[in-house]
Design a protein that fits this description.
Layout (H helix, E strand, L loop, with lengths): L7 E2 L13 H15 L11 E6 L2 E9 L3 E2 L2 H4 L2 H4 L5 E2 L2 E8 L4 E6 L3 H4 L7 H6 L9 E9 L6 E5 L14 E9 L2 H8 L11 E4 L3 E3 L5 H15 L10 E3 L3 H18 L17 E3 L5 H5 L3 E7 L5 E7 L5 H13 L4 H10 L1 E6 L2 E7 L4 E7 L2 E6 L2 E5 L1 H17 L19 H6 L7 E3 L13 E4 L3 E8 L6 H19 L5 H12 L9 H6 L4 E8 L19 H17 L2 E6 L4
Parallel strand pairs: 24-25, 25-26
Antiparallel strand pairs: 1-7, 2-3, 3-6, 4-5, 6-7, 8-9, 8-10, 10-11, 11-12, 13-21, 14-19, 15-16, 15-17, 17-18, 19-20, 20-21, 22-23, 23-24
Length: about 600
């Protein structure tokens, strides 16, 4: 006979249990308190508690019958059928307590879960897994997590084959339950006795409990308990919980917010002399976090300032979202100069951005609400992402580096995909670089061709089997967040487009290319549409922004933007889980 039990750990530090030294007294306390709380009439009966010892482990079994209850079928069926029938029912429940040298575990049956629930270690399974995690090799099957940022409070996600833990960005999410396949190494090291053959990898479920996703007999259960004891002696990794939100409102208002204003204020000296090599420029991403898609798809933006009667007046209108930040800063300088920090701060706090599409306002938010950035405090990075402040532990920063290296090495595009160099002194703008591919065979430049809010890509490249949608950005810094947002929005909209019957957006893009005199590689409309039947891969292409043209893969420590690292990891994971494959490519400058 086999079972597939979930194993819970009793928290013996619980205030109601911590004074008890004997296990049978702990069990008695748990049962009596829960029976009373659940309004059961029965109480703990020592005659119902049986005990055996197996090796160094002691098992305690307590059986009880739950109170008589009336089946809900009686309420469902008409009285003519039920008046002469007895619908009361009882259920046998069991509590199996397992005592080891340092721990007390429990397995439940029937209705017994509610008995132990108030006394279990709520993070036992996750904490156990943190001691054997292999992020690059553990395969994630599904996960339930608690959302920290954004509007989604609870998130349940399922993944395709070969989706690794390392591809799941944990920032902004607190895992609650995980279903995964352990690495071959860990499967062999700790659970080889459960494998049928050498290629098997053990599946587990972790959350409040720990469960091997396989039916086992009592002998195997005993081995699992022994192995859990060994695992709990290992050092835990904080890979799943290596960040924390800063919730001290006073610290935020008295220190972090003023520091943000100071850094923007200090950036006023750079606003008229932007350079890719400027080391003092305030690095940031600018976007409405509650309406990313609408903000990106806007036709134009109105920049507003507070009036003396607390209304708003428009002082500028721009069509390029990348111009918003500098335009607002310049307006602040025009009004208050570069010496009055207080008045400059008041101006920024009152500045407001509205975006418009088809002459309809689609978003509205304050200037500061749109800023995501990072800066060091006491040599440790502080993130402002989507209006929330985060403190990142050293281990998280190292995880970002490790994950970034993994993505750049594992999903690196072929060397020939973008053969042209990008000398910023010659090709100053991204659009200039993109346009240099306009007459190359098997390349179609789609930069600035936007239809129905779909910015497909900057450069389209294809061969006999593949279609590459390439998005380009100069530098590996905070602007990467804008690039990755563009990619995920494009991928989602493309999937919707290809799922439609007429694929009208592709027709509109093709016609726009014709009308603007762009090279279409002599393709007809049907041939252009046929390209999208090939294997679709997105490519995130970037350059080094450092004075020396260094490889990001080989010099990850010299590229210090955690926002760039985080954005890449998040985008790679989301693309592989929900949309298309994504590769990366570094464009050489000379």
């Amino acid at each position: 006979m086999t079972k597939n039990p979930k194993i819970y750990r009793i928290d013996k530090t619980n205030r109601l249990l911590k004074s008890l030294k004997q296990t049978d007294l702990v069990i008695q306390k748990i049962i009596n308190i829960s029976f009373k709380k659940l309004k059961y009439t029965n109480v703990f009966d020592s005659k119902n508690l049986q005990k055996i010892t197996k090796g160094e482990t002691t098992y305690y079994l307590y059986l009880y019958k739950s109170e008589d209850i009336v089946s809900d079928w009686k309420e469902f069926l008409p009285n003519g059928l039920t008046s002469k029938k007895d619908f009361t029912e009882q259920k046998l429940s069991l509590l199996l307590f397992i005592e080891t040298e340092f721990n007390l575990f429990s397995i439940v049956g029937g209705n017994a879960y509610q008995i132990v629930l108030p006394f279990i270690d709520q993070s036992f399974g996750l904490n156990l897994y943190s001691r054997i995690i292999k992020p690059e090799f553990d395969e994630l099957l599904s996960i339930k997590s608690r959302g920290i940022t954004g509007s989604r409070a609870g998130i349940s996600e399922q993944f395709r084959d070969n989706y690794r833990i390392i591809d799941f960005i944990k920032f902004g999410k607190v895992p609650k339950e995980i279903h995964l396949k352990l690495s071959t190494e860990v499967s062999d090291l700790h659970f080889k006795f459960l494998k049928k053959n050498g290629t098997d990898r053990v599946q587990i479920f972790v959350g409040k409990s720990f469960q091997i996703k396989k039916s086992v007999d009592f002998e195997d259960l005993n081995k699992i308990i022994t192995e859990i004891g060994y695992i709990l002696e290992l050092v835990a990794s904080d890979y799943l919980s290596s960040y924390e939100e800063i919730t001290d409102k006073k610290y935020i208002s008295d220190y972090l917010h003023p520091e943000l204003i100071t850094r923007i204020f200090n950036d006023t000296e750079n606003v008229y002399k932007r350079s890719q090599y400027s080391s003092t420029t305030f690095e940031h991403d600018f976007c409405d976090p509650n309406n990313i898609e609408k903000f990106y798809e806007a036709d134009y933006y109105k920049l507003k300032e507070k009036t003396v009667n607390n209304g708003y007046s428009t002082f500028a209108e721009v069509t390029d979202r990348t111009e918003i930040y500098d335009t607002v800063i310049k307006r602040g300088i025009e009004r208050f100069g570069v010496n009055d920090r207080f008045k400059f701060m008041v101006f920024l706090q009152g500045a407001r951005i509205t975006s418009h599409h088809n002459k309809i306002q689609t978003t509205a938010s304050s200037f500061l609400f749109n800023i995501s950035t990072e800066f060091p405090i006491n040599n440790k990075p502080i993130f402002l992402v989507d209006t929330k402040w985060y403190h990142l532990r050293d281990t998280f920063v190292q995880d970002l580096k490790t994950n970034t290296e993994h993505i750049l090495k594992t999903y690196n595009a072929s060397n020939g995909i973008l053969p042209l160099k990008w000398d910023k002194k010659v090709l100053k703008r991204e659009s200039d670089y993109n346009s240099s591919y306009d007459n190359l065979k098997n390349y179609i430049v789609i930069d600035t061709i936007i239809k129905d809010g779909l910015e497909l890509c900057d450069i389209l490249h294809y061969d006999n089997q593949n279609l590459y949608l390439i998005h380009v950005k100069y530098g590996f810094k905070s602007e990467m967040r804008e690039l990755t947002n563009q990619i995920t929005i494009s991928a989602r909209r493309l999937r919707e487009t290809l799922g439609s019957k007429d694929k009208s957006i592709l027709t509109k893009i093709y016609n726009s290319l014709i009308n603007k005199g762009k090279n279409i590689d002599n393709l007809t409309l049907s041939e252009f549409k046929e390209l999208f039947n090939k294997k679709i891969t997105y490519v995130l292409a970037f350059t080094s922004h450092l004075k020396d043209d260094l490889s990001v893969i080989d010099n990850i420590d010299k590229f210090d933007s955690n926002i760039a690292r985080y954005s890449l990891i998040q985008c790679s994971g989301e693309m592989r889980a929900y949309y298309y494959d994504m590769q990366t490519f570094q464009i050489m400058r000379k």
